[in-house]
Amino acid sequence: MPKAQRPKPNAGSFRIRVLAVVRRIPPGRVATYGDVAALAGRPRAWRAVGNIMRDCHDPATPCHRVVGAAGALGGYGGGVQLKRERLRAEGIEVGAARIRRFPEIRWTPKKTSGFRL
DNA sequence: CGTGTGACTCAGT
DNA sequence: GACTGAGCCACAC
Fold first, then answer.
1. How confident is the model at residue A25 (pLDDT cuts 50, 70, 90)?
2. Residue A76, CB, strand B, below 7 Å
3. pLDDT in tens, A26-52
4. Is the CB of A44 under 7 A from strand C?
5. Alpha-carbon gap, residue A61 to A106, rounded angstroms
6. What is the C-alpha to C-alpha distance for residues A59 and A74, in angstroms, rounded to an integer?
7. Which of A15, A91, A99, A101 could form a disulfide with A71 if both were Cys (CB 3.0 to 4.6 A apart)?
8. What kind and span of H or E run contains A40?
9. What are the pLDDT digits (tens) for A49-103?
10. How many Å apart are A70 CA and B12 C1'?
């Protein structure tokens, strides 16, 4: 295939795609905004990902599993403290404002995993 | 259609 | 390890 299949940059679709990726995050694991953005098809859209999460109040979207780089909690609608407890409830070690063993619990899907949108 | 904003990230100090 | 500055993208107004 000479033509690389690229996700349709339909405006507004990006938000749906990001939510879909976040929903794919298994329990007990976390992903960074950059990873989610890359999985959504825009590795440089971490900025938008943050905005989308802020507006995302969907119970089916574990936004609390999305953290910043280096395991920084970043923020959370309602209080970062709540996010910290939520992650801890999944068995994730969380510090004052940072996740421990981040590279261990960091959810990094592989292309060979059959994951495709 | 232009501007502002943000749950970000990287590199340098 | 922490702070600062600069770069970046999508969305709301």
1. very high
2. yes
3. 999 999 999 999 999 899 999 999 999
4. yes
5. 17
6. 19
7. A99
8. helix A33-40
9. 999 998 888 888 999 999 999 999 988 988 888 899 999 999 999 988 899 999 8
10. 18
Kindly name the residue from A63, A67, A87, A94 that is annotated as catalytic. A63
Q: Are A106 and A31 a contacting pair, CB within 8 Å?
A: yes
C1' (C4) to CA (A2) span, angstroms: 44
Asked if residue A84 lies in contact with residue A94, where contact means CB atoms within 8 angstroms, the answer is: yes
Question: A27 vs A2, A9, A84, A88, A114, CA distance in Å?
Answer: 38, 29, 14, 11, 19
In one-letter notation, the amino acid at residue A18 is V
- Angstrom distance (rounded) from CA A58 to CA A51: 14
